[in-house]
Every structure is written in structure tokens, then in C-alpha cells.
Amino acid sequence: MNKKRILVVDNEQYIQEVAKICLETVAGWEVITASSGKEGIVQAETHQPDAILLDVMMPDMDGITAFEHLQANPATKEIPVILLTAKIQATDRRRYAQLGMKKAIAKPFQPLELAGQVASALGWTFEN
Length: 128
Hints:
alpha/beta, Rossmann fold, 5 helices
């Protein structure tokens, strides 16, 4: 079984670090990080991750705009995207689903549950 590669895009360094540690420790996945939507797009093209965890509210380019760029690019169009967001009302969830997001995970998230939430959203299994 090959190791999954996850790209975490969040402008908050702390969120990147917590997500990276948890996904690597709990699920054994490889984690790449990016601090902005633009950097995330470049990292997605370069590293072709198995999934992207994408923050919604970031300066310069928000997560929705970054997602639209990813969807418009043939090299990144098929990569599943899960949002990390504090905006998680029912109307937000419906909008995200209509755009094609796999899931929205509320921030702050439970670190030890993050890998399970990602795996569940994508139909993956892992040993922990």
C-alpha cells in the first residue's frame, strides 16, 4: 500500500503544524504544507497530493478562489479538496458541496480525530 500524501494549505503556522503532526502520527501519511492559496496551487501542481486540506479565510487568495483555480487546472482538477473552516453553517456546507468540495471540517478541529475525518470523507482506511 502506498503512503498517502496530503497538502495542508493554511495561513496560520500553528494549524499547519498541528495538522501535519496529527496526520503523520495517527495515519502515517506524508504531509506537505503551504501558507497561502497561491503557494497551495503551486504545491498541488508540483507534488500531486492525494488530497488537499484547504483553509477558507486566508489573505490575498481565499480558499474558495484557490479551489476554483485548482478545478480549472487539468493537473490538479481531480485532487479531492476538504475545507478547514470556522464558517460551517448548514448554508455554508451546502455551498461547499455544490462547488465540489468533499467535506468541510470545522476549525478548531480535534487533532486526534482529523485523520479519521479525512479518511472517512475520502473513503480511505488506515491502521492506527
